[in-house]
Every structure is written in structure tokens, then in C-alpha cells.
Amino acid sequence: MSTTNELDVWRGLPALQQPQWDDPAEVRAVVEELAQLPPLVFAGECDQLRERLADVARGEAFVLQGGDCAETFAGSNADAVRNKLKTLLQMAVVLTYAASVPVVKIGRMAGQFAKPRSKPGEARDGVELPAYRGDMVNGLEFTPEARRNDPRRLLRAYHASAVTLNLCRAFTKGGYADLRQVHRWNQDFVAQSPAGRRYERLAGEIDRALTFMKACGANPDEFHGVEFYSSHEALLLEYERALTRVDSLSGLPYDVSAHFLWIGERTRQLDGAHVDFLSRIRNPIGVKLGPTTSPDDALALIEKLNPAGEPGRLTFVTRMGAGRVRDALPPLIEKVRQSGAPVAWICDPMHGNTFEAPSGHKTRRVDDVLDEVAGFFEVHRALGTHPGGIHIEFTGDDVTECVGGGHPIVEGDLHQRYETACDPRLNRGQSLDLAFMVAELYRKS
Length: 445
Ligand SMILES: O=C[C@H](O)[C@H](O)COP(=O)(O)O
Ligand SMILES: C=C(OP(=O)(O)O)C(=O)O
What we know:
two-stranded antiparallel sheet, alpha/beta, binds phosphoenolpyruvate, TIM Barrel, 11 helices, binds erythose-4-phosphate
């Protein structure tokens, strides 16, 4: 692991997707302020997650990672965070109970405020403005004022992350996530949707199992809370660097902005700044791999990011697209397996399946999402490797952003509740449908 000076090597390397700020002095002042603020997460928690991910790499646990595409400052409130957590908990219960596998729960939450974009600008009715890059950089509103990059937003992102993480810790440790509450999470949902009714039946079985275990002498308080971890894409390196601290116990650097950080598909260049910076922090980390990744790219990333071959350190999050997963994924897994490197493999069935509907809304078909996950399981089953988890964009609200699902949304419905700040998310029913399908696939594999 690196010395403090080596943590700045990235500054001399190409760093893609970094915002241009108007006033470097203002950025320096903000970064200095960030560097004085308390850690959001602790080194020991990151180490614990690394151990959980080592279980995943060994085939003994499954990751459920998800949340908004882009969190917003306005969304850092109790209702929105509770709804997201509630859906994550419901999905985790379905997976744990129906697939009988320990589920490592990681929110794409409490820090997912910066977005890489395909184009620097956005045009509407002949007007061109800079693209929205996440609330950490500029505002979503289509006005020149909102779209101006404002470094003070880095501080607001830190505080919004702190608020969100505080809520997550309270909900997951303070009794709300108690397994004896499985019915309560579904109360507002049960009658409305096929997924809700299916979940309710499973919750009834869990109730009976808990009563049985209690009768056998198990301590029901064991089910009081759950382990929950935060994660986001480590995109804005000034922010991540300012929140990197040397742990007083181990003397090693941890990025204390989240437990788990990942490098996106657009910034995973081997000789780039993002790969260098993440190679030097001690957190468990991930890399997104799209369909253009070669087996040699995967090996080179392993060599750079986990040269010691430590289990749980490195997760590959594959996002091939439903049409490509069955041919693009096997050569990667095969070569990594031959190398003996311990990698946890997770499927992101969202980012390879985005298209634009005739109405102009960016959307995804639930069928494509399900098909990519099915392909991911088929490939792992054929190769005898472990399908280690899913990474999804979802929300706890009944939005209309992805088409299809058990309670189908058609393209003409997209305008009804299209609320994402960036890419389309699964709503609660679509997320539960996915969890039931994954549980079945897991059982079979
Ligand atoms: O969430 C991922 C990316 O930021 C997003 O897909 C980029 O979208 P764009 O192609 O509209 O820029
Ligand atoms: C940008 C993202 O994905 P990818 O890097 O896989 O495109 C994302 O997960 O927000």
C-alpha cells in the first residue's frame, strides 16, 4: 500500500471525466475544508466488507448492490432513503430465504453524486448547455446558472452523504431492519402488485420459520439488525483524495467516503488516474467491465489493483448487455480462473441495456435486465464459477422509468413518473420480480 506522496501520483496521469472548474483557488479551499472533515466510514468496517467479499469470491455469499443512478441532494431525506432501504431489505430477504445464501447488502447510496457522461453538452430546442454531471458538480435544471460547475457542491455532497449514511445506519441497526418486521416493509404494497403478493406469501413462511426457531431456543434478538455498506463510483478524484486518510491502527490509507468504491467503464484505463488512485487505497474496490474488455485487460487490472491476490479486495462488475453477455463474458472468466486470482463476479444488468424510447426518455426493458442476469448465471454454471451478485439501479418508489415487468409499464407510460436525474431505475415491483428470479436461478446453480 502507498505512502502519502504516492496517493498523489494520479495527478500526473490522464484523468477522464473530471469537471472543469472556473476558479482553481475556490477548489483548493473546498478540498482543504473536506480534508478536515470527519470520516464517513471507518477502516474496520471496510476490512469487514473485504472479508464478506472474500466469502463471495469463494462462492459462499451473494452481493446485492443497488440504489439510484444518481443520488440528489433533494433525495437525501428520510422518506426516500427509507423507501430505498425497504426495497433493498425485501430483495435481500427473498434472496436469503429463497436461495438460502448469505446476502452482502451494499447501497449505491450515501455518495453516488457524480456521473460520467457520454457527451460534454446537452441540447434542447436549439439551446446547448453543459451536461448534468451529478449534484456534486452542477444542477439538473436546464439553465446556464444550474449547469455551471460549482466546487461548493463537493461539500454539499459530503454533508448529504453523511445525512444519508446516518439514516441508513439508524434504519439498519435501530430495529427497522429486524427480520420480524418482514410484513411491515410490505404493508403499503401488498394488495397493489403481483410482486407484493408473492413477497407476502414468502414473508408468512419466514414468520413461521422464526417462530419455529424461537421455539427451538434461538435468540430472536439475533435478527434485530443487518450489516449494510455504502458504495459509489470513485469518479471525482479531488473529492476522493480529500477524503482519504491514513488509518491510525494499521498506518494504511483508506478512502473514508464509502466502504466500497468502484471504477467506471469509462475511466478504467490501465495507465489512467482512476486505476492508479484506487490501487493505492485499502478499501475493497470494484471495476466495471463492458463488452469491449479483453481477457488481457482483465488480467492487467488484477495485476495493478490486487497484485497480492487478496480475496475480497477486487470485484469485477460486468455490464455486457443482454445481447452480448453469453459471448463476451466467458473468455474473461475463463482467463481469470486460469490465473487463479480471487475475484468476485457481479452482474450489472442495467448499463448495457439502455435505449431511447420514441418519447425521448432513456429507458431499459425489464426483460433485457432479466435476460442479462440469466445469461450471467448460465455462463457461470457452464464454467463452474460462482455468480457472485447483482448490481442494479433501483428506487423504492413506483416510478415509470423501465418498461415491462410483472405490472407492465409500456413506453407510453414513461412520462407518468419519470423522476431519475440520469439513467432509468427499476421500481419497487420490478426490483422484487428480479429478486425472485435471481433466487430461482441461484437455487438451480
Ligand atoms: O449512469 C451511467 C452514465 O453516467 C450514463 O449512462 C451516461 O449517460 P449518457 O450516455 O446519457 O451520458
Ligand atoms: C456509469 C455507470 O456505469 P458504467 O461505468 O458501467 O457505464 C454507473 O454505474 O453509474
